[in-house]
Specification:
single chain, alpha+beta, Beta-Lactamase, Helix Hairpins, Heat Shock Protein 90, 3 domains, 5-stranded antiparallel β-sheet, 5-stranded mixed β-sheet, 54% helix
Length: 493
């Protein structure tokens, strides 16, 4: 059976409350009984001794048991709270005054009697009740001698059967019951008040659990389900509510991010499959033409087909390398190996690789300042990849007669900025952020003669992030673009 938190707390409270009430009641009754017996036994402690000293039958040590029984009967009429017994030195009950069948014992244990005779401070001390084999009662006792010879003991039960019967009748009186009912009512009121308080304190937790269950049933979607607003109180429930709200909001954001990422990956796969299919289809077509024996191709045509097929293979190789490089960046498998080197030498090496391509297109490519002597700390291989990608993009988007400038500027004593600017077609303002997404191609993309995968800028951004650098872009449509990133400068010792 599944119980709510309130039901568990309420059940536990009722059980503990009943146990405590029973414990307190039993303890109080025991304390009351012990105190009552202590007082009564001390009050009548010398009763038996006085009877032995004052009564001629007991003083002479000559026992007329019938006369002694009559004496006990008279004394019990005068003191109904007492029962009188005469026992021999072995504990056998010799005489008493009681109706036939009332006395159930014929022997009693003398140990408590002897202990009380030796030490009167042991009260309350209990002896056997001759009328009930399973019960013990307080008593008064005195030894009876005849010329220094022990004849037996006068054994007086304090609070006899008649006394107990009368006392129980009094306890059954209406006033006692009314007092008991008032006490029970007070305890019941306290229990109900505590249950209401528990209900009040656990209601927010129950409400929070219900709302979380509804959100869980909705697959943690916060579109149609929201947690109630929780105040800035410093109690545990409000703090828990705020924490759960923050956690659910974070989960919802992650779900949306995963959905968006999945959508982007699907789009990326679609684009990549198209990019891979186009050069593959071209290579396959040319190879089929070259492999047909009945086709009579001139040497010039054959070389053209082979050249185009080779270009497509190179493009395929470049695209696949970019795909693996981007995947390694996203998975965090790429590591940075920093070293100190001259930035100017690296830039001139990169520029030298593209001089022929720039001259063939009629684009001017230069470095500023010409004497570029700066020492930096970075990963030289990854930085070369970034600069090469940016220069290659600039050449493809800059028309004949344009110019590309690779400029190094010192921002402060610790940072350098590398700017690669061109006078090309530029980029629309609403596309400046999106161009760094994988496989995004701006509307001004120039893919004449090359099938571009749209991964170059995404790779540049990822590589620079590994080196704790950030790439920025400024562009104006029809006037050109400028890509900038920072590098830590090597300070002189």
């Amino acid at each position: 059976m599944n119980l709510s938190l309130y039901q568990k707390l309420a059940s536990s409270l009722v059980i503990i409350f009943c146990f405590i009430c029973a414990l307190v009641y039993g303890w109080s009754k025991q304390l009351e009984r012990t105190s009552k017996h202590h007082g009564e036994q001390n009050l009548h402690l010398q009763l038996a001794e006085h009877l032995v000293q004052d009564n001629p039958l007991l003083q002479q040590g000559i026992y007329d048991y019938q006369a002694l029984e009559n004496l006990f009967h008279t004394l019990m009429l005068l003191g109904p709270a007492f029962e009188f017994y005469f026992v021999d030195p072995q504990g056998a009950i010799l005489t008493y005054s009681a109706e036939p069948g009332k006395v159930k014992r014929d022997h009693i244990n003398l140990t408590p009697l002897k202990r009380l005779i030796l030490d009167r401070t042991l009260t309350p001390l209990y002896g056997d009740d001759p009328r009930d084999p399973s019960r013990q009662k307080i008593f008064s006792v005195a030894p009876v001698y005849n010329q220094d010879v022990l004849q037996g003991y006068l054994y007086v039960i304090i609070g006899g059967e008649a006394y107990d019967t009368t006392l129980n009748t009094i306890k059954a009186n209406d006033n006692v019951w009314i007092a008991g009912l008032w006490l029970a009512g007070a305890l019941l009121f306290l229990l109900i008040a505590l249950l209401i308080l528990f209900r009040f304190f656990t209601a927010p937790i129950k409400k929070l659990a219900t709302e979380v269950s509804m959100i869980e049933a909705a697959n943690y979607s916060l579109v149609d389900n929201q947690l109630s607003s929780y105040s800035n109180k410093n109690n545990e429930v409000d703090s828990l509510g705020r924490s759960i709200q923050a956690m659910l909001t974070r989960i919802d954001e992650q779900f949306k991010a995963l959905a968006q990422s999945d959508k982007q990956r699907r789009e990326l796969l679609t684009h990549l499959s198209h990019d891979l299919r186009t050069p593959l289809a071209s290579v396959q077509g040319f190879l089929e033409v070259l492999s047909q024996p009945h086709r009579q191709l001139s040497e010039q045509e054959r070389q053209h087909y082979l050249s185009v097929s080779s270009d497509n293979c190179q493009q395929l190789k470049l695209l696949i390398e970019q795909i693996f490089e981007l995947a390694n960046l996203e998975n965090g498998q790429m590591r940075v190996h920093t070293e100190t080197f001259n930035l100017g030498e690296l830039i001139y090496d990169c520029v030298a690789k593209f001089c022929v391509a720039a001259d063939n297109k009629g684009v001017t490519l230069r470095v500023e300042p010409v004497i570029c002597d700066f020492t930096v700390v970075a990963d030289i291989a990854k930085l070369e990849r970034v600069i090469s990608n940016l220069i290659d993009n600039a050449i493809r988007h800059t028309p004949k007669g344009g110019k590309i400038i690779v400029q190094v500027q010192q921002a402060d004593a610790e940072q350098l900025y590398v700017d690669i600017s061109d006078t090309g077609v530029g980029i629309q303002q609403d596309e400046l952020i999106a161009i760094f997404e994988p496989h995004y191609q701006a509307s001004n993309s120039n893919t004449v003669g090359h099938q571009q995968g749209g991964l170059g800028l995404a790779i540049c951004k990822g590589l620079l992030q590994l080196m704790n650098s950030e790439i920025k872009v400024r562009s104006e449509l029809g006037k050109g673009s400028q890509f900038s990133f920072n590098l830590p400068k090597k300070t002189k010792a």
